[in-house]
Every structure is written in structure tokens, then in C-alpha cells.
Write a structure and sequence with these properties.
Largest sheet: 5 strands, antiparallel
CATH architecture of the largest domain: 2-Layer Sandwich
InterPro entries: ANTAR, CheY-like_superfamily, GAF, GAF-like_dom_sf, GAF_ANTAR, WH-like_DNA-bd_sf
Order of helices and strands: HHHEEHHEHEEHHH
Distance between the termini: 60 Å
Shape: elongated
Radius of gyration: 26 Å
Structural class: alpha+beta
Protein name: GAF domain-containing protein
CATH topology of the largest domain: Beta-Lactamase
GO molecular function: kinase activity; RNA binding
Strand content: 5-15%
Pfam family, one: ANTAR
CATH superfamily of the largest domain: Transcription factor LuxR-like, autoinducer-binding domain
Organism: Arthrobacter bambusae
Length: about 260
């Protein structure tokens, strides 16, 4: 099938007109720096990709799906319709996006009306005004997997040059996504450490209270708290917080740490 039959050729850089002095890599890097978390980055990435591949005659939407062992599936989309279609595909357990992930290869749906694969999902796709789909995996070099899904409103909406441009876009997007994921992991690790330090501080304070009340040593006081935790089937930190509250009246004691 030739390009004329598939539809208009578009330039993936066209959607970056708002950044005339920046290349795609710089723009993607800015997305990482401007995003407060991974969810926001994925939404901005999907919005950028949709703009890059949209032309006057062919509206394109985008969804980005990330699969990690710890967090499961995280998605971002350029609009609510695409977000719903991405979630529906996950519910079905199969489709162009998931196939691209499993096989680490580009998947093209030329015409959703006549696509023999994933018939139930394709029916939903067509009902939602999507004529063709291009799913391009992002190479993240690790256990985390990701795919960029482009949705065209028209059948035959993606040409050969579009596929090449999408693969180039995905290459740059993967680099930025790796950075966004690393930042997210570091942020989560910091939050986990802060929570652990908060819990440790609460327990230490409660141990001190029990030592003073019972005139006992640290080990004995800790065993008192542990026995109470086990017998009541309540977390040790919650038992410790209750002990502190019984003395100070604070229902949720906080500890403060230097950053």
C-alpha cells in the first residue's frame, strides 16, 4: 500500500513549533524538569506526541503506557478518550499496545473497521472515532517496559514516513522517560526513608516513655511495646503513637529531619 492510499505525510517536528529554537531532545528534557511526578510527565509526553503527529487533515491523539514490576501499570494520555481506550485495552488483556510491549516491535492497525486481531477492542476503538493505531515500544533497557500509542481519527492514518518519525520520536522519549523514572525512584526512596525515620522516632519516643513509667531498661520497654503490638494485632508504630498520645495528647506525633 503506497503513501497516497494511507493518508497525508506529516513531519513529527511540526508539533514542536512552539519551541522553534529547541530540538526534540531539549524539549523532552524540559518536560522532565517541569513535571512534578511521573504521571504528569507521561501526560505531557503524550500531549507533545499528539501535537507532533497531528495535521490539519488528521487529528492524532496519544497515550503512553509504562509497566513496572513494583508499581504495575502507569498511563498518561493527551485526552480522556485515549485514556479510556488505553485502560480498556488493559482490561481486555490484549491489543496493539500490549502486543507491541510483549514483542518489543511496532504494531500498526491500518483500519480499525477491518482489523481481524483483537475484534472486541477494535469495535470499541471504531465506536470512539479511531480509524487507525500505531503502537511503538520505548527501549528502557531494564525491567520496566513502555509503549507510545498513536491514535488517528482516520483509517490509513499513518504512512511509512510517519512510522519512521514515530520510532525516532520514541527513541528520544525513551531517554527522557528513563530519567523521569530514575527521578521518581529516588523520590519514592526518599519518601520511604522519611517514613521509616518517622516511625523509628515515634517508637524511640514511646520506648522512653515506657522506661520512665515502669522504671525499666530500654530492651524491657521495647518488649512491652512489641507484646502490645502482637496481642492487639496493631502495628508497632501505632502502639507507640498511642503511648505518646496518652502522655502528650498528640494523636499524630511528627518528627522533623533536616533535608
Amino acid at each position: 500500500m503506497n503513501s497516497a492510499e494511507r493518508g497525508p505525510t506529516r513531519n513529527a517536528s511540526a508539533g514542536l513549533a512552539a519551541h522553534p529554537n529547541q530540538d526534540l531532545g531539549v524539549t523532552l528534557q524540559d518536560l522532565v524538569l517541569e513535571s512534578v511526578d511521573l504521571d504528569e510527565f507521561l501526560t505531557k509526553l503524550a500531549t507533545l506526541a499528539a501535537a507532533a503527529f497531528t495535521t490539519a487533515s488528521n487529528a492524532v491523539s496519544c497515550g503512553v503506557t509504562v509497566v513496572t514490576r513494583k508499581k504495575g501499570v502507569t498511563t498518561g494520555s493527551s485526552d480522556e478518550r485515549v485514556g479510556a481506550l488505553d485502560e480498556l485495552q488493559i482490561e481486555f488483556g490484549d491489543g496493539p499496545c500490549l502486543t507491541a510491549l510483549r514483542h518489543n516491535s511496532v504494531v500498526l492497525v491500518v483500519d480499525s473497521r477491518h482489523e481481524s486481531r483483537w475484534s472486541d477492542y477494535m469495535e470499541a476503538v471504531w465506536r470512539n472515532g479511531v480509524g487507525s493505531i500505531l503502537a511503538v515500544p520505548l527501549d528502557l533497557d531494564g525491567e520496566t517496559e513502555a509503549v507510545m500509542n498513536l491514535y488517528s481519527t482516520t483509517p490509513h492514518g499513518f504512512t511509512g514516513p510517519d512510522i519512521t518519525a514515530a520510532e525516532e520520536f520514541a527513541e528520544g522519549a525513551a531517554t527522557s522517560l528513563r530519567l523521569a523514572l530514575k527521578i521518581s525512584q529516588l523520590r519514592n526512596a526518599k519518601d520511604d526513608l522519611t517514613a521509616a525515620m518517622q516511625s523509628r522516632s515515634t517508637i524511640d519516643t514511646a520506648v522512653g516513655i515506657v522506661m520512665a513509667q515502669n522504671r525499666c531498661g530500654r530492651d524491657t520497654a521495647f518488649k512491652v511495646l512489641t507484646r502490645a503490638s502482637n496481642s492487639r494485632n496493631v502495628k508497632l508504630r501505632d502502639i507507640a503513637a498511642h503511648v505518646i498520645a496518652s502522655v502528650s495528647g498528640e494523636t499524630d506525633p511528627e518528627a522533623y529531619f533536616d533535608e
